[in-house]
Amino acid sequence: MTETVSGAATSGAAAAGKRLTIERVFSTDGVHPYDEITWERRDVVQTNWKTGESVFEQRGVEFPDFWSVNASTIVTTKYFRGAVGTDARETSLKQLVDRVVKTYTKAGREHGYFATEGDAEVFEHELTWLLVHQYFSFNSPVWFNVGTPSPQQVSACFILSVDDSMDSILNWYKEEGFIFKGGSGAGLNLSRIRSSKELLSSGGTASGPVSFMRGADASAGTIKSGGATRRAAKMVVLDVDHPDIEEFVQTKAREEDKIRALRDAGFDMDLGGADITSVQYQNANNSVRVSDEFMRAVEDGTEFGLRARMTGEVIEKVDARDLFRKIATAAWECADPGLQYDDTINDWHTNPETGRITASNPCSEYMSLDNSSCNLASLNLLKFLKDDDTFDGELFAKAVEFIITAMDISICFADFPTEAIGQTTVDYRQLGIGYANLGALLMAMGLGYDSEGGRSMAATITSLMTGTSYKRSAELAGIVGPYNGYARNAEAHKRVMRKHQAANDAVRTVHIADAQVHKLATKAWADVIALGETNGFRNAQASVLAPTGTIGFMMDCDTTGIEPDFSLVKFKKLVGGGSMQIVNQTIPRALKKLGYQPEQVEAIVAYIGEHGHVIDAPGLKTEHYEVFDTAMGARALKPMGHVRMMAAAQPFLSGAISKTVNLPETATVEEIEEVYLQSWKLGLKATAIYRDNCKVGQPLADGGGKAKKDAADAAAATEAAATKVVEKVVYAPTRKRLPKSRVSRTTSFTVGGAEGYMTSGAHDDGELGEIFLKLGKQGSTLAGVMDAFSIAVSIGLQYGVPLETYVSKFTNLRFEPAGLTDDADVRMAQSIMDYIFRRLALDYLSFDQRSALGIYSAEERQRHLETGSYEPVEETGGAAELLVEQRDSAEGAGERVETPAAHEATVIDVETKDTHGAEAREVPAKPATEAHTTAELLEKISGTAIDSPLCFTCGTKMRPAGSCYVCEGCGSTSGCS
Known about the structure:
Family: Belongs to the ribonucleoside diphosphate reductase class-2 family.
Distance between the termini: 25 Å
Function: Catalyzes the reduction of ribonucleotides to deoxyribonucleotides. May function to provide a pool of deoxyribonucleotide precursors for DNA repair during oxygen limitation and/or for immediate growth after restoration of oxygen.
Protein name: Vitamin B12-dependent ribonucleotide reductase
Number of strands: 28
Helix content: 40-55%
Largest sheet: 10 strands, mixed
Radius of gyration: 30 Å
Strand content: 5-15%
Cofactor: adenosylcob(III)alamin
Number of helices: 31
């Protein structure tokens, strides 16, 4: 059983008679917030997309009528407490909110926050109103634990510490385990552990931190399945001057090579797959903590010293640029490690007299003292957009004041997993207020994410949020006293406040909307300086920008955290099950803001719905394209667009930003180096990157690489086929009738549970001439439509329309029923039409024709796994033997040999060292293009890229949230939220 430590604290100033007056802003006097809302009953039923098995079912749950199906589903499955089917199970949002709100209100009363009982009641009503109207949300542990018999753990983020002793290392394993069990994540820096190049007191050689990472990774991999809330989330940091830094950098890249090899051998290496546990280090994000000294050495091209952990002496010198290149190469291969900029982090540290900041939480937004925690809350920015499409800064500030008060109260009753964490949190009271829906807000305001106007708006909002937070913190310090560690760090804390104020003064506004917000922020920071001088501060930290994964869905946000919109077309879950693709509802509002008329808006939205982007949309001005840029797709933001937005917000945050810089598959190692270098120069505290398709288990894609090649090949094939059609129509407009007696085949099929039959007839030369489809009951509308469709296609075939044309047009059509089939050659289909024409292609087109369309049989796909080619063995001749001969002749000569395989080029370094230092190791130039995981299988079938991994709980598509992924169907996360 975990040890818990209470967060109760005394309030000397409160005892002196000072109390807090709560202003009623959102709720209505004399009316309970619930009575202003229309409530309805819903059934929450979830099934696994892959297996069809029931995942969750609770009927008759109660939610406001304006909450989406997604939001109510995720809250019901994730946050309702009690066993399903028992009287103890929560059945209404009212019960959930009351459980949390009444606990906060009770603690506020007991710890002397409220001036009168009336103020306590106003606090309760305001907090209830803001939550049920989706204006903000606490982090997930609050919803899991507060008001239940479980320990009142409210923090999502923990930072641990480990020293160079077995007792400390084993205690690290134990502490992490309890934190994972409670549904939270932790990070720590391993740099105190001596390297494998140093000696033990016994004279032996130390194991080094990387070896101990194996044990912690195995522990996290085991415990992640024990909780009902989420997978384990952890961060491992190593200083750049640690002698084992190169081994640490290459750790996950080596494992990614192993994953590819096992995948190609037929093992299930998908996210949550049965065999993924056979590889190591997959449960942590890795980051290198770099210093200004190291980054300057990279710029200057000089050497950099690696220091012994016990003595601090330089035991090895390395070329700084070479090490930096190895870091970027590993990130190119597998997205790890990220970078944390040590000097920048500690320059903004409010408590340097207590200790340095050495690590972060798993997503890198919380950075503070070792053995500390942070409870988070995020505001929904779109709720503060007024009817005239300007941001309501005054209302936003009032919400921030109130939420900071509630967050501070939570520390009074919270429990913590270890005594050290509890003591540090009570002494420093770190908070992490943030926001979500920035991308949607900017779009609705007609501002491009990667534009001066967009960055200025984000900077002023962030500045107002943090300035207002510290203002309220200073006011609370005057009522219930400053944090216990303030006196020791007073001058440093006030210095950081002045740095924030100076950064605010340096902001140059672009338009009226951000100028209005900036004016409020300037006033807030002036109050911070004045009140802080008198009262001190209640909280050592106030703000971070978290990924807001699950709680983002709870608030019905279009975008998470500081992220831009991921795509313009989204999946919307429907009442009663199923989903549909819809155009992001922020787009019509943005078009109206930009001055487009209703009929123009309708045409543009229809175009986006069909194409997924705005390029060449009818009537849309090219100068407005940037407003609709997204993280992925045809108008994807440039990598530096992400970095510049982070740089705009960073000076106004106590912590950092959870965000991944997305790069296309074609990005180079040099581009990653530039992102890391510019992030340092622009003052970021941390940066993580993700290159499309760099990981097997979590394939991201922007339609680049093979997907683009396949699309281009298919388009070329279609164009060529269309040319043939024109020739036949012009020169031979005659019908080639089938003989009276002809060869035909009948195929029974099942697609997504729907059964049907297809009969196809051929000419004497084997060319397809007719099809008949049987689907639905005789006499039904569906059966009639299928008959008419069959006749139309048959006549087209007989008049010379090539089958290739039909295949290219009708494959990849998406509509229900869709899913698994009973055909070994076509395992999954996006629709009945998609299946039918893939089956016809396999039955009647030649291998070359099908290859141009990307359609292969099961046998051909297996052959590709074994030989690297889809073609029959006899057609490839001795290509494999020739390659072996080339390799043999190159042995000992140090030659560089490239394989001639069309689908996957493998570069082999003979007797030279690659980036990992291994000799003669084969490095795939590209990830394997055959489908080996469920996500890759969907890519293969649909012909389009799958933009995120599939959920390990329900099998539906996930989406990025900071540096993690969250499921739109059930709310499960890949590590943090």
